[in-house]
Amino acid sequence: MPMIRVELYPGRSTEQYRAIAKAITENFVAICGSTPESVHVVFVEVEKSDWAIAGRLGSDPAPTAT
User: Whole-prediction pTM value?
Assistant: First the structure.
């Protein structure tokens, strides 16, 4: 049973989750030869303040260009 975990900032609609789950499942099946019923997709919403990129929190203001 493949389990695919998708971590992302909150803010997507149910329809967006439905569409990405379908796309991930279809592509996994096409590439790896599994069955759709065996593919599990888990969405984990992470607040911007709990995620850092390049030493900056996602909730921090964007740096100004110099």
Answer: 0.84
